[in-house]
Design a protein that fits this description.
Rossmann fold; 6 helices; globular
């Protein structure tokens, strides 16, 4: 089994004031329009790939924005995709093949340096702030998040099949491994 983001806890991100969601290999998000599905996906993307968020991303601009994720399946096999240095930096934070991370942005805007990635230290149950190289290790350990939005017009999407359309993104995900094989 490869590494998998199993749980996400979102605090103060748009409509997700205090949201916790369990994830599986495949987790469909189903709900009415404007119920927060896209906000959950955006929060996960931000957890895995840092970017500076503006005021519109904060539910309450007076509080920090936090997203916590529990990554399971961080086995020796999964770690083998990392460089030796990345493995050395991430190993102290893995407990029973579990790695827990938290990204925090204290206020809207600002600089990328203000955004901190914390890793839960299993030895003392304390958050370690911005351990060197952890962000890169996590980027290598987990695949690039791909956001595939709802189809506005299925007939038009399927006729174009560009990599920017929903159908095109899905086809690219299925076809690339076949091309490589």
């Amino acid at each position: 089994m490869s590494a998998l983001l199993e749980m996400v806890e979102i605090r103060n991100y748009k409509s997700c004031k205090e949201t916790k969601i369990q994830l599986e290999q495949f987790t469909p998000l189903i709900g009415y329009n404007n119920s927060g599905k896209s906000n959950i996906i955006s929060a996960i993307q931000w957890l895995l790939r840092k970017s500076v968020l503006d005021e519109g991303s904060f539910n309450d601009t007076e509080r920090p924005l936090e997203v916590i994720g529990r990554v399971v399946g961080v086995s020796e096999e999964a770690l083998s995709v990392l460089t030796a240095e990345q493995q050395q930096r991430i190993r102290p934070y893995i407990d029973n093949e579990v790695l827990t991370i938290k990204r925090v942005q204290p206020s809207p805007g600002g600089k990328a340096a203000d955004i901190k990635l914390h890793v839960l230290n299993p030895a003392n149950s304390q958050w370690a702030a911005n351990p060197t190289g952890i962000d890169n290790a996590i980027s290598s350990l987990l695949p690039e998040p791909i956001r595939i939005g709802a189809m506005e017009d299925a007939a038009e999407d399927s006729a174009k099949s560009k990599t920017t359309t929903t159908i095109g993104k899905l086809l690219a995900e299925f076809i690339e491994p076949v091309r490589q094989a």
